[in-house]
Amino acid sequence: MAKLHRYTGISADYIEKSDLRINAGQFEKTLKADSDTTTGRLDTRFSGPTFDPLSKEAEYDPQSAAISSAYVSAFNDYVRKELKFGENREYKPEIDVWKTWNFLHQPPGVPIPLPQAVNVMVDLATAMKYNPDLRVQVNAGYFDLATPFFEGVYEMQHLPIPAKLQKNIEFRFYESGHMVYAHEASLKALHDNVAAFIRSGDNAKTAMSP
Fold first, then answer.
1. Is 132 exposed, middle or buried (0-12, 13-18, 19+ CB in 10 A)?
2. What pLDDT does residue 98 have?
């Protein structure tokens, strides 16, 4: 328990009471020592007041509460003033489309879509084996709890591909959360890394040309 406490920041007592099973909402609600502070999900650098100190899980995302209004305002200003679109229309920043979303996925080699959690790792592995020159760049923020950065590393390192194809995968990490671009220095680094990745592919094609 003491080691898990060092790894996660969650108290050993809470980890034991949870039977070692702590979901993201519980983590966000419990990470701070005081029960009055909730940690961000999309970016754990953000925190805010807990709505209900007696609640089991976080009831909102402090990161979204802090910066979402800026995106909504910028979008509304751009589409209405620059694009001249949206007069007398309401922009809804969030719609619960997941309630009617079709999550069926048909992995390679399977005759029908499967009613299971969507996982496209097998699709990526198949694509990399079909085209051994396919390269992949993984970009992730250290403070992302929605899609934790090390989970991506783990998934990539356990792809069902020949070991020699692992060299085609590269990783770039940033001092940011889920939206890497929300941190100005990380935004620049992300731009430069992706641009360099694309250019390196173009250079490889040029070198192979007769």
1. exposed
2. 81
